[in-house]
Specification:
Length: 250
């Protein structure tokens, strides 16, 4: 199925790699102009160059979404430089696993700041723009960890359950201004997410999980799910999409 996003503007956080980069490229390939947000300016430029080289339009905006002024500036720049804002994909996230006991609480703060506050800041900035324009889409990237808690990921679970709960509450609020709000929950995806962990127990458990799953999802698999969500006609709202590798049990 082909989706035409010509004339639309999308803003994607965490666009330096993985799901964010793939989503930006796929949305641009469907005709959207795309604002790329992320902390690594060089990686943003690479993604923007690929999009431009394929005939699309992209704007790289180095952004740390945990800083409210930067998050707001990212959303505002998407509107002012690209001519509007129709789609916000809150994809930026970190996954720092391990037991609660003896944990480095700075890792908790990092996850809460990125996975929750960064998402909130960007959404708060985007809603008035979409309301003024008569509608739009907010897509929050969560995880299967937002549906089922597991040993060793309690605080990550907390943040992703928070994303799911916020998405449903906002969905009920934002439909009154024509904004569709959706959550996409990936299972295991081949990205850099696990590389942020240093705990050998965590890394060993992750490797065993990968072996059981077999072939993980690719970032483009999730990007296509996001395109499906935002490509629907205005009267259709796809509120939740759960995507797992075929052999992932939970």
């Amino acid at each position: 199925m082909d989706f035409d996003l010509s004339g639309k503007v999308a803003a994607v956080t965490g666009a330096t790699s993985g799901i964010g980069a793939a989503t930006a490229e796929i949305l641009a390939g469907a005709g959207a102009s795309v604002a790329l947000g992320g902390r690594r300016a060089d990686r943003l430029d690479e993604v923007a160059s690929r999009i431009s080289g394929a005939g699309g339009r992209a704007l790289a905006i180095p952004t740390d979404v945990t800083q409210e002024p930067q998050a707001r500036a990212f959303v505002d720049a998407a509107r002012s430089e690209l001519g509007g804002l129709d789609i916000l994909v809150n994809n930026a996230g970190v996954m720092l696993l391990g037991p609660v006991q003896d944990a480095d609480v700075e890792e908790w703060r990092r996850m809460i700041e990125v996975n929750l506050l960064g998402l909130l800041y960007c959404t708060h900035a985007a809603l008035p723009i979409m309301r003024e324009a008569g509608g739009g889409d907010v897509v929050n990237v969560s995880s299967t960890a937002g549906r089922q808690a597991t040993l060793g990921s309690a605080v990550y679970n907390l943040t992703k359950w928070g994303v799911n709960g916020f998405t449903e509450g906002l969905r009920q609020e934002a439909l009154h201004i024509g904004v569709r709000v959706s959550v996409v929950e990936p299972g295991m995806v081949s990205t850099e997410l696990l590389s942020h962990n240093r705990n050998p127990v965590v890394l060993n458990a992750a490797e065993k999980f990968r072996e059981r799953v077999g072939t993980p999802l690719e970032p483009a698999d999730i990007a296509r799910a996001i395109l499906y969500v935002v490509g629907q006609p205005p009267h259709v709202a796809v509120n939740e999409v759960l995507v797992r590798p075929s052999r992932q049990q939970r």
